[in-house]
Structures are given as C-alpha cells and as structure tokens.
C-alpha cells in the first residue's frame, strides 16, 4: 500500500499530570500510521510548546524534551507521506498565534475545498506558510466572525472532505470528526481525564479505557468544566462513509476501528474468502504482517491448517539502502524468505491484504514457487476497488486499475 | 534470552565476482545473531581490506565501501554482546599481519583454554591487542611451527571449547567446526563458487544452494584448485554435542541447523508439549516471534485453534530509550499488546520459547489477564536446563536457576 | 559582545547563472554576523525554493542542494541569536504564499512597531506562525491595499525601527534600507547582474564590485528591465543614524561599512586612543581578533612597537563543551594564552574592542599579569555607551552599565 | 605544509587527581599538531582505560568519558596524517596486554628500522594489528629479555630514527627522547605531580610550570618513589639534530621548543630576512597565521610599518566541502581576503612561513595584485631545504624541489 497517502495518527490527552509523556507512548502505538514526521504540542494553561520534526517518534522526540513538557494537556501527530512531498513545514501539530492566543491543530484527512478556501483567504490579504490543507483551518479559526462564536460549529461547517481533528488551546482540547466519519477518532477515559486517539491500541498503551467513537459530525469539547458533545451540522449532512482501508490494512489488529475489532474483521474477511473462493489445498499461509489475521480466518473457516510460509527479516527497515540501485528487487527477498518446509510439494493458499502494483506480489509468490510449492492459490482480503477516492486515498494515477484487476485477472503469470 | 552472550553469525563466499556485496546481504539475514558489531573482510588476491564497527550491518557497512570491495573472496561477521562488554577492538573479522602475510578470522563460539594459551604466549613475549579469545587463534597461526604446516590441523588441535571459524587469506577461504560441532556452520554452492554460513537462511538470501553442514572436527579448504575436506583430529575426539539453543531460539525458523529445519523442530516441540502437558482450552496463542512455530505445532497436535493473542510493535527497537528510567516495565507493554478479542473470557494456552528471569514473562502474562483471559496456561518450548554451560552460553549467574524452575514451579503468582 | 542580539547578514544576487551557489560563498563571508541559522532562497522565474536551518552555512546548506538551485536570482541570510531564543521557525529567508504568489524576505534589524502591527493584524483575523517581527512585513505585503501598489513604498512607510531588507519574487529582487540607515546594505555589480550585501567583504568573495551603499530611505528594485531606485518616504523622515557597533566590532575589517573601511576606522580609533590616553610603555598588544586593527593604529600613532601578546586557539569553537560545568572560566584560558616572551617584565598596553560584563576581560588581563607583565594599561576602542538602544542592540539588562563603567572606573582589581 | 606527515602531539600527567581531564585540556592546546585522531589513556593503578578515535579532541573525547577516567596518571596523543592513510587502527595511545600487564604508548616521530624489526618479529611468530611503526616498540617491550630489565634502556637502544615517547603502566609514566632529540618533549611540574608535553603551551593550559626539556638520549621515569633520569645510550650516540620545522611552523608561537621561544625565534627569522633581503617598501604584511611573528620581526628590524594585509575567514575549516569539485581554487579565496586599504598603491612586503607547492602561494599573492598592490615583495621565513628527511618529514615526492626553488627562483609569474 505504498502509494496511498495522507493517513496520519492523532493522539490527545486532557487532565493528566504527564500528558506529554503519555502522548509520546501513544504515538509509539500509532507509528504505523505515519513515519514521515512526528510532533507533540502541550500546554501548561498559558503557553503552548511544540516539538516536531521529520522522522519517527523516537527520532524526533527526545526524553529531555518531555521533561520540559510536564503539562496536563497535550496532543500529538504522526504523518505519512510519499517520498518527495515530505516537508518540515507540513509536520504537525500546526501551532499558530491569533487574536485569542495560541492554538495547535492536528489533522488526519484531506479537505476537498482547501484550494478554494485558500484562494479566498489570499484574495483578502492572508499569507500561507505551508502547502498543507490544514493551514486553511487555522485561518478560518482566526476569522473575526468565527472568533466570536462560543464553539467551532461555524468554522467546521466550512470544511469539506475528510477530517478528524484535534485542537489544543491553553485551556481546552477538542476532538472533531467529519460528517462522513471518513477517518476514525475514538474517545477514552484515563483516570480523571480523557483521551482521544485514531486507534484504540494507543489507549491500551497508556492505560486508558475506550468509551466510544467520536461520531460523524460531532465535536467533543473538554475543559475544566468537563466534557461536552455538540453536533456542528444538521443531521441531514451526516452520512457515515467510513474508509474501508482502515479495517483492511491501515490499522493495527489490536485496535477497534468504527467500533469494530480490526483483527476480527480481518478474520471475517478471511472466512468470507474461504466461502467465496474455496480451493482444495494443504496449507494456508499469509504474507506477514498484513495477511496474518485473514489467513487465520481462512484457515478456521476452511479447516485447512494454517502455517508459517514466509519469515520476515525485521532488520530491513525504512532506512535500508541497497548498494546497487538497479537491484531493487533484492529488497523483497531481503524482507521475506519463503519457508521451504511449509510449502515444498504442497498446494498452498497464500493470503495477502492487497495487491497494489503487482510487482512486489509477483516477487513474493515467485519465492514460493522457487521453494517448491506445487500449487499457489492467492487470496486477497481487500475487496475490489471500483471508483476513485477524493478523501485522502490517492488511487487516481495507477492504484485504481491494478486493484480492480486483483479480482478479475487470472494470475497465470505468477 | 537477553543474558546469553557470545553468539555470532558467520558468512563467507569464495569465487564470486561481487563477494563482498553478497556477504553484506548474507549478514543481513544473520543480523539476529548479533547486533553489537559487524564486519566484512575481503581480498583481491593480494591485500585484505576490512570494514568493521559497532552497530548493525546497515550502520557499519555503507554502499560506497562495498564498491571498494569488488573482490572474489570475502568473509563477514556479526557479533552479539551484553551491554558493557561491547568494544570496537573485539569487532570481527580480526585481521592481522604475520610472516606469511595477512589473514582474517571470524569466530563463533568460546574457547575454554584461551586464558591458558594467552598466558603461555605472553610469557614468551607476545602482546595482545584485544580481550577476545579469538586473538589466541591468530597467535597460534603465526607460530613458526604452525606456519610450516601445509594445513591448519596442528593449530586447530590446540583449541578447546566451541568454535566455528572462517579464515580468509589472499588466496584461500577455510571453514572449521569444533569436534563437538557446538555451533553450526553450513556449506553451500553459489554458481561456480562456495558459501559458508552459520544459518542456511543466509544462503537463500544470496541465491546459494545448501550442500551439507561442515562436520564436527572438519576443516574445509577452498582455493583455486577447488574444495577439499580434512578432519584435523582423530575420530575419537569427535563427539557431537550440538547447542540446543540454536534450534530453540537463536536461529531463524527458515534455516536448517544441524541439518534440521528449525521451524519443523519447533513445531515438533509444540506438538510434544501438547502431548506432555495437554489442557482443555479454547485457543492457542504465542508470544511473538519466538513462540510462533511451537504454538502452531501445539495447535495442530491438540486440535485447539491457533490465533493471534499478542500484537507486536515493530518500532520498539534496540535504540528505544524510555523517558523515565524507573518505568522500565513500560517497554514490555510498548512491545506487545494483548488482543482482547482473542483472549477475553477464554481459556488460553500461551506458548513462549523460554523464561529467563521471569519478570518479562510475568508482565506479558499479566497483559493477558488484564485483557480478560479466563484461564492462562503457559507452555515453554525450551527443555529444562539442568547444568551450566561452558561453551559460550553464560548461565552461571542467574539464568540457570530460573530456567530450571520454569518446569517445576506453579505459576500461581502470574 | 555575546549579549547583543538581532544582527544578521544579508546577501542577494540578481542575474547570474549560478546565483544560489554564489550566495552560498557570500554567506560564508558573512558567517560572523550570525551563527544560529542560515538559509538561501532562489527562484527560476516561477517557483521559489528555500533551504534553511539551524547552524552554520556549511552545516545547513549542502552542495547537492545548490545543484537543485541553479537559478538566476537568490537571496541568503545568516542569523545570530543568544542561546535559548533560537528557533527553527525564525530562520530566514521567510517564504510565504500570498495572492500574487510566492515571496521571500530576509531582514536585518528590529522593528519597533512590530507588536502593534501584529495586534492589528490578529484583531483582523490574521494568524502568525513565528515570533519574528519579520512576519509582520509579509502580512503588510499581502494586504489588498498594498498589493495594488506598483512598488513597496506604502508598505515600507508602515515600518518603524531598523530594517535592511532583501525581497525576492520570481522575477524581482529588492533591497531596502530604513530611513535611519541603521544597518548597512551595499550594492555591487557582478558581470551583467547585481549584488546586495550587508558587508562588502562578501562581494570580494564572489568577484563582485562595490558600487555604493543603498541609501537610508531608499529601495532598489532589480528586474529584467534593469535597476531602479526610489525613496519610499519623504526627505524629512530620512535621518541617518548608523549603528556604531558595525564599525567597532560586528563587521569584518576587510569590509566597507557606510562607505568607510572598517580596518581604517578601527586604526583611527586606536590612533585616537593613543592621543586621548597616552601612556609610556614598552609594547602594544591586542586581544585578538577584535583588537588587532586598533592596536596597530595605536602603535603607529604612538610609536610604541606592536607585538603579539596573546595566542588564540582556533579549535575552541562554538561547540566546545567543558567537562565540568563549574569550570567555565577555563574556556577563556583555552581560547587565549598570554605570550610570556612579549609581556614579561614589560609595560604593556593592551587594546580590546569592548568590555561587556568585565568577567572575560578580567580573566584575560589576569593572564598577562601571570605571564609577568610589569604594568598593564587597558585601552578600549569602543566609545562609551550612554543610552539604551531600541533598534536591535539589547543593552537594557546589563551591558549598559558595564559599558559605561568601561571609561569611568579604574581597573584596580584587574 | 599540507604534505608533511607524522607529526603528532604528546601530553602526559603523573600525580594529579583529575589527570585525564587535564590531559584533555592539554591536548586541546596541541590540536594543531594533529587533527586526524586523538586519544587518552589513563590508569587507576590497576587497569588502563583508553578512549581514542578519528577526529578532533572535541569530537573523540566526550565529557562523560572523562568522568570515568578520574585517574591520577594519564597520557594523551593527537595525530596528523595526510588524507588516505588515516586509519582507526593507527590512532594512539596504543594499549596492549603483555606478560607484565597493560601498557600504553604514545609516539611522535618515525622509526627508520621499523620495517626490519617487524620482519624479525614476524619471522619469530609475532602478529601485527596495525601498520604503525609504534607497534614494533610494544613488541620489543614484551620480549622476555627486555621484560627482565629494570628499565627501558635495552629496548630503547634497539630503536633508530626519531621518537619522542610516553609510556604509561598502572604505576609509572615514562618520557623518552631519541638520541638526536629530533622531536621535542618537555618536562614540567604541576603541584606535586609532573607533566610531559610536546609543547609548553599545553603546560600553560593546565597550570603547570616548565622545568626543562627531556634531553636527547634521556628517559625520565616517574613513579611513587619520585622522578629519576637515565641516559639509555652511551654519550657518543647522542648527537642533537633538532627538526627546524618545529620552530618554523609546526609549533605554536606561545611554546618553548628546544628551550627556545617559538615567537622570538620567528621574529628573529623575520629580522634576519630584513637584513638579508632588504627592500624599500611601504608596508610589511603577513600571511596569517603562519607569517605573523616573522612579519613583526621584519617590521621591527626594518622600521617599515606592520599592518594587516589579509583577513582570514575562521569558518573555513577542515570540513569545508566545495559545491563543485573543479573550483578548488575558491577555497584560498574563501580563507583569505586581501585588505585593499592596506595594499592599494603600496609597495608591499609579504611574509609567509613557507612555500610548498607554490599554487596556494600564487593564489594568495594574486589577491594582493587584484587589491591594487604596486609592488609585491615575498619573503619566506623558512630556510632553504636541501636534503631529504628520513625522520618523519616526507619531502621525497615533491615538496623537496619546490622548497628549494623557494630561495632560487624569481617569482616573475606571480
């Protein structure tokens, strides 16, 4: 899924002595949602301090910084990006000064009317420091009309597209989900305080308890007077349309997304595949990690035993550079090795979560053939993708077609 | 297994245009055998060039170095060590000059007579640059008596303890295994050349084909005249005594060790556990990665379904530093999260490969209890450890006792 | 002079194939004006690319970046700051998007009405990303009223305080000096193009020829139609008031500042000291580098021979960290050593450019006493400082008084 | 002097609570003698701990290391090398284990019989870890014959060539100078302890007092019983032949070398040049820093005023990398700028310490011509070099000839 962009992780804590440190732990659990940049903004009730930069949480945030962030409210963000568009200016949380003081914003999603809003602002004399659509949100926030409001409803009504948002001011934390609920955002309790997170696995991390999801069209305000929920738009605009990719591969299996266990959902996909596309075989294997849950589901449903068919080399990471540029296919082989003992002479069902360009998949299945598999039956747990997505998943260029063929084409050439 | 030391990885290639680059790939596959230091020595038939340093292969060896190493013979080494004893001087391959020219040595194992030999050498005027027992080997090599020999037999007969060795001279590569065969060393073919490796998974990596293990007491010499095997000691000293920990947890599941598939061996351990210690339960889970193969074996043998019970955070790595020193238990929770949906209200059998100090295990099983497991049945695939080991596994201090209790004590306090 | 802040270096080139690379060289010559951050913005006529960061020019700008900046127009900036206030957000050039497109600004000086302007902007709905007063300038630029202007006059009339500015748009470079001419900015010619620089030494560096200073109250516009000068305010507001510290210590001796050779000016200060405060002595020495020119001037005027009295250790730099925090006085001794052979038994006149807190000076003169000087006569080339400065030199806290005592107090305790 | 190799700096302290930390400061003062590698070895009376590595003292030795070195005896070393031959294995002090325990050696100089001794050792079964000639010394030390001696005389008699040495054992520090006294080594007192240093400026640094030079052929032993001096060879072999380059450019002007003030020596060279090669001129300038002392000497002797003719950019350092490889001449211009006000229309005498290849000098004098000098009279303070040197100064390849022409050739083409 290397060409999907704009998925990010959000984590916020209100009312906990060491909020910044816990946000740090929470972001560790959301790191898979974004490896490009990381940041934490926290407040002591007066000022907002923000540390952010390019890289992993562990690279950007250092323990001494957290010591200087002993604040009761903090929000954090991790950001994914395809190579090339990465840019320190786009790292979040975005912190700005405006009439009411400082505000920090963390955004997961993509606004479809950002360009139009930006042009309006510029025509009226505003300047922009980043290329991020998130900057439009803080400009809206600073509009005198919006500043007079007691809540964010008027502002949020201007936004189109997908947005799960965390706002931090010196005395308040706000969590928002767009009327479609495109991206997840969950609410939890931590002692006397509250937590909001893109995935519930991050709540487990800090010892928080999941309460419920923020609902589509809802804004949840938390301040010293407690927690209050408001729907910022009329009910007719609220049309849930959750992104399926969260369940299929973005999220961690130990998270609840849209109130649903990711692991169980994937097991159900596997079971459904066993039902839809049964085949007589000796063993079910997965392409780790993505295919693990679905493979177990397939195995349980079909009765065909599950076994390990690939071993992953965990040292082949983000920073791996191949000595020779023209041997890029090597990286697939470095990452995964086929387990001959499992597949040799066997009829193998291999489960993966997706096929994007097909080249990586082809290399992987080739490893099985080389290891002596008698038959290779590929099953992909992601449902077919038929239409382009304008809410943050970029399939327009090439992913689209390939994904469609995933369920139409016979894989004769693998 | 964090307090076991002195296990290392060896990889060598003879007769391949880009030997150094392939050794680099091979070491990537052996990285789990040693994260402390890495090194590659190669020769163009005249000089020996060595790059080594502290850290992972990817940190120590950079692509431009490999370009300067376009040599047909190369050996590499990765080294493990407990914190504190790490030392750049002990990084291998060890390269020295002696009367016959340059020689490089890479060693996996521990000599039991190194101290005595060293004292003899020092009494005769020799100097030592490192604290490594490997340095004794090159001193032996340089002895005029040994230099006159046409092979290494006389030298190798002096060594006691465990040693798998690779030697590199400008025109020869030699692989050696001690008379007990304590540590593994396998021989493979790569086109017209040869490969030697601690584990066969590294052969898969470079496209080599496993031929057989170097035998206990055997030295295999490879030069321009081909390959020849010699037993350097008389048959009566050859008493195979393989280290069980290789099969139980050191090695990668996709390797053959002592001619045996590691994955299948661990599955058999799991099956044996199911037979020895059956229990009526709902689900079998593993502590990843170590327990994966045995858990599948247990599941297949018992008929109790296997499922994922822990999710591992792959971003929690070697360099992870906790903001607060006194919260070290946090690291366990950051690394693994229990999968509530799998264990809640269930009778759970959890398979791990070992219990060392017990503290980490206790934290892990605690996660299951917190996630709502009704019953937790722990099964450890490693057989009980009854006697201390003097061949490179350091159990003398504390691991010893704890390992013994692993099969005696009831885990009431978990 | 370690507690003076807000002095920076500007360098811009218009009409030269490798403008960005030459700006890089120019900034090298201006590095002494600011070690905190560095940046270069350049344009290809369409977009503006900016590389900036914390640190020295050589740390921030890497050769490969310059290759991607093969643009005919470029401006650069180096920035000084006291420890603690440093902040990547304040690094310059500041590049923003507004209605007309992109613009980059580099600023040397300090606006006295920045706070008021900022409050007005915020009251009208603007947001601020930095704490720098320079951001006010780009907000002014984006005001619809100002955008309609054909030049920057209306904008520049809003600014109060000290400002030498360079603007870069995709087709134009503009240089501006405030009506007092507080900070320098010089104009030069480079082949068919133009150069603007804080100091002329940077012009020497790129092979440019000094034409003249930008005048107080003047804006110089350079585009494809050539160069044109405009005074943006009426003559009555133009009241030259140059910062004396530029001549006394900020600038390099090989620069012309305010049309005056820095080296000759300092020699004249030395000669004046010889006239004002003569003393019968054996040798004139300087505290290097600051006192060198004045000491030569003093020597020439008084006829007392100049010699080297201190030797500076050039390895004691910015990044020097003392092993023990409580031995900070050691750093003075590491930086300078007294030359016993020059001062022992002699009556020594020592010339320095300034005394700030007095503690460093005290340590230095103590070295001379230890080296055996019979008499130590201190002469400071900087004239007495009687009033606070609101244009970028921060003496309010402590420097003020100390500087005054420099000419009143007898140095009995040295 | 960029192609002279094998000059290094030595510094040792005996009998001072924080010896390692003071050696650190001392090495800072000797940094100009070697920028390639640095190291400190110290002892607590039992073990020897050594920290060394490639780079500057400040890069290699970090404050926390010094805390672990709170030992009363320590020696340190900085090493120079031409690019390419640098090698971590050759960093010093060299620390080895031998029969008597641990010993550390630091060496400044070059042995002329190292190759022969090495071959003898190898023929007898010794191994070598480095390419450094210093390793021969520790092999000699470990010879049973030498071990039986109560002092080092027998060992030192085997050495030929140039060697100033510091030895450190757990209870003793020894300083040695070769019978020619080729390289300097001075003895000083620090409270109740002793200091040995290549240059006395390092003694000033730690507050030590210069006593005298170690004499040619002398070994000075310091242990708990005090200090004792021995001549290790008979008087007939002691033939002082000091390296003139120490006085002419290696050493710092604030050092005493061979009992002589470097600054005064260079002033005398300048005075001698004024006498030997007088010329009617307006101003004397120097190429900083090397020519400073001689230029002052020339000025004082000739009565022609000294002034600053070049300004050096102190930011152009070791790590400077030019954006374009083919513009290497730029580096000269970046480093030095001619001071037009000093030289324009003047008859200029320019003093430098040496001319090596001539290319750099040519660029520099060209700057003066460009700055408008009417006449340029070059005077070089280094005496002509007529014969090759085998004691550590490598002129064989090209420096030799060029240095000779420095006093023969008319510089018509400058």
Automatic annotation (TrEMBL), chains A, B, C, D:
InterPro entries: GATase_2_dom, Ntn_hydrolases_N, PRTase-like, PRTase_dom, PurF, PurF_N
Organism of derivation: Candidatus Brocadia sinica JPN1
Active site: residue positions: 8
Protein name per the record: Amidophosphoribosyltransferase
Catalytic reaction annotation: 5-phospho-beta-D-ribosylamine + L-glutamate + diphosphate = 5-phospho-alpha-D-ribose 1-diphosphate + L-glutamine + H2O
Gene name linked to the record: purF
Family: In the C-terminal section; belongs to the purine/pyrimidine phosphoribosyltransferase family.
Keywords attached to this entry: Glutamine amidotransferase, Glycosyltransferase, Purine biosynthesis, Transferase
Pfam families: GATase_7
Domain of life: Bacteria
Keyword Nucleotide-binding: no
UniProt pathway: Purine metabolism; IMP biosynthesis via de novo pathway; N(1)-(5-phospho-D-ribosyl)glycinamide from 5-phospho-alpha-D-ribose 1-diphosphate: step 1/2
Function: Catalyzes the formation of phosphoribosylamine from phosphoribosylpyrophosphate (PRPP) and glutamine.
EC number: 2.4.2.14
């Amino acid at each position: 899924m290397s060409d999907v962009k704009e998925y990010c992780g959000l984590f916020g804590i209100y009312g906990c002595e060491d909020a910044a440190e816990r946000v740090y732990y929470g972001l560790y659990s959301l790191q898979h949602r974004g490896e490009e940049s990381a940041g934490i903004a926290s407040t002591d009730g007066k000022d907002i301090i923000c540390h952010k930069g390019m890289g992993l949480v562990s690279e950007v945030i250092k323990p001494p910084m957290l010591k200087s962030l002993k604040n009761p409210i903090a929000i954090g963000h991790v950001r994914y990006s395809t190579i090339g568009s990465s840019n320190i200016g786009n790292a979040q949380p975005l912190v700005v000064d405006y009439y009411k003081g400082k505000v920090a914003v963390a955004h997961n999603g993509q606004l479809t009317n950002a360009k139009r809003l930006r042009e309006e602002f510029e025509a009226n004399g505003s300047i922009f420091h980043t290329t991020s659509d998130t900057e439009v949100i803080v400009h809206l926030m600073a509009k005198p009309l919006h500043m007079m409001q007691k809540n964010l409803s008027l502002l949020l009504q201007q936004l189109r597209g997908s947005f799960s948002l965390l706002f931090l001011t010196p005395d308040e934390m706000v969590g928002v989900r767009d009327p479609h609920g495109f991206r997840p955002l969950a609410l939890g309790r931590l002692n006397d305080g509250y937590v909001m997170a893109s995935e519930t696995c991050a709540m487990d991390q800090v010892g928080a308890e999941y309460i419920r999801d923020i609902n589509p069209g809802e804004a949840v305000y938390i301040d010293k007077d407690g927690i209050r929920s408001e729907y910022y738009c009329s009910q007719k605009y609220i049309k849930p349309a959750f992104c399926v990719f969260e369940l299929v591969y973005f999220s961690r299996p130990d998270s609840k997304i849209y109130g649903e266990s990711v692991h169980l959902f994937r097991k159900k996909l596997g079971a459904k595949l066993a039902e839809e596309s049964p085949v007589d075989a000796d063993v079910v294997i997965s392409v780790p990690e993505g295919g693990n849950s679905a493979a177990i589901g397939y195995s349980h449903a079909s009765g065909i035993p599950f076994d390990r068919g690939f071993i992953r080399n965990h040292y082949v990471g983000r920073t791996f550079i191949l000595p020779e540029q023209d041997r890029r296919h090597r990286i697939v082989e470095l990452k995964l090795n086929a387990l001959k003992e499992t597949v040799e002479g066997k009829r193998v069902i291999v489960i993966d979560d997706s096929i994007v360009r097909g080249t990586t998949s082809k290399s992987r299945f080739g490893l099985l053939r080389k290891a002596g598999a008698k038959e290779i039956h590929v099953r992909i747990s992601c449902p077919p993708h038929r239409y382009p997505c304008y809410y943050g998943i970029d399939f327009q260029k090439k992913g689209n077609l390939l994904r469609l063929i995933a369920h139409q084409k016979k894989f004769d050439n693998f």
